[in-house]
Batch of 3 targets.
Target 1
Amino acid sequence: QVQLVESGGGLVQAGGSLRLSCAASGRTLRLYDMGWFRQAPGKARQFVASITWSGGSTSYVDSVKGRFTISRDNAKNTMYLQMNSLNPEDTAVYYCAAAGRGRGRYDYWGQGTQVTVSS
């Protein structure tokens, strides 16, 4: 079983940048496709981005395309989300999640990290 811990959240002004990290332990990250999700107050959890186990394929929700970049370093057992041109609508708790290769179901979740973008 893999354990996930997010870090890198914080308060940033609109137009600013943050880089989130998701550190895995317990099992090698190579076994998993990975994703980032977010949940704003009063809203459902939303898919943000995903990356296959090798890093060869990525996917993004339309609202972050061109601004966010998902990446991973399997040697460091860590995944990242580089967020640029942030706006207040990006304010949310961001979660990383792991899915067994090709399974398409995220079975493992981190505890989340808060991102707040001020206008």
Target 2
Amino acid sequence: QVQLVESGGGLVQPGGSLRLSCVASGSIFSMNAMGWYRQAPGKQRELVARIIGGGSTNYADSVKGRFTISRNNAKRTVDLQMNSLKPEDTAVYYCNAYLQRLGNMRFEDYWGQGTQVTVSS
């Protein structure tokens, strides 16, 4: 089994900051990309930021310059530092990992349960 567990969501005022963390555990052989997605009420899930094993990153245009993704391969963690938060950043944020389980040749997507981020005054 593979588990992704997120932490760090909550309520913050506009202009504030939050840091999300995600740790992957279980029967993992190799990890490729890790990232964060979000889903606001009535909207589709969208990519927020993604980082591959070599360190290359990509961000949604709406968060560039405000959010920073980082990972620790040894600890199997991925963090998302969110600054200058706006009400439109309100959503459930999901951790994602594209990884290979022990004994499985394929890479597959795994998801965390999600953590709520609410930006409101």
Target 3
Amino acid sequence: QVQLVESGGGLVQPGGSLRLSCAASGFTFSRYFMYWYRQAPGKERELVATITSSSDTTNYADSVKGRFTISRDNAKNTVYLQMNNLKPEDTAVYYCNAKIRRGNIVSYWGQGTQVTVSS
């Protein structure tokens, strides 16, 4: 079955950095786009970053452009989110996501990893 396992969250001071990882299994990772979302308390889940299957194209929410970088290693079935110059408003639970064709398109989520930016 499809599994997405995030790691790398934590508490960091404003201006600091974190690198999130998402280990994927149960599907042919190299064939699919991968996504990072986040959800802050009391807010809707929002798309943060997208990467194509071959890493040739990435897209970012305006709020993180220039600070976050999504990447992937298809040999390790892992997608990353490098987060630099973190701000308190980046505080959220970060989720890895894959949209996989199983007849219809099915959206799979990891359990999430908490990122807290605070002094």
